[in-house]
Amino acid sequence: MKIAIVADHNAVPMKARLAGWLRRHGHEVDDLGVHDDVVVDYPLLCEDLGARVVSGAAGLGIVLGGSGSGEQMACNKIRGIRAALCHDTFVAEIARGHNDANVLVMGAKVVAPDLAERILTTWLTTPFKGGRHQERVDQIMALDRGESLR
């Protein structure tokens, strides 16, 4: 699968590690940067990655920041993106299995490198369960389109 990945200046080492992990596990990696510790504004990075996921140029996306909190907010402003901030494997499993998250967000200042690999593994290998969860995802996407659920 083609997976887009991006990091702000706080998460360059984590991005390099996870991109390598993805390649070793047979994924095509679309590395959107950054590649150094020069301070950048993450919303533009999130927009670039989100556009690739929504267009289908990438099957999934990974966004890495300091805490991941702002990145998750920025990603979820992009129509069609369901970004999940995951600091443990339980949330990663729920994000994919129940919410069909198409973007994984992690904070390099919060998640240790070994745990980041376990979170990524869980996120990539957990299938979406559908059923009652599909109904909820449909509701999320209706909100994304500006529709009322009332």
Briefly summarize what is shown:
The chain is an alpha/beta fold and 150 residues long.
Mean pLDDT: 96
How many H/I helical runs? 6
Assembly form of the protein: single chain
State the CATH class. Alpha Beta
- Please mark out the parts with pLDDT under 50 across 5 or more consecutive residues, or reply none: none
The sequence of SSEs as H and E is: EHEHEHEHEHH
Could you name the CATH homologous superfamily?
Answer: Sugar-phosphate isomerase, RpiB/LacA/LacB
| Integer-rounded radius of gyration | 14 Å
Number of domains: 1
What fraction, in percent, of the residue positions are helical? 40-55%
As for the CATH topology, it is Ribose 5-phosphate Isomerase B, Chain: A
Main sheet characteristics? 5 strands, parallel
**Structural class based on helices, strands and sheet pairing:** alpha/beta
CA-based shape: globular
Distance between the termini: 37 Å
Strand order of the largest sheet: 2-1-3-5-4
Strand residues, percent: 15-25%
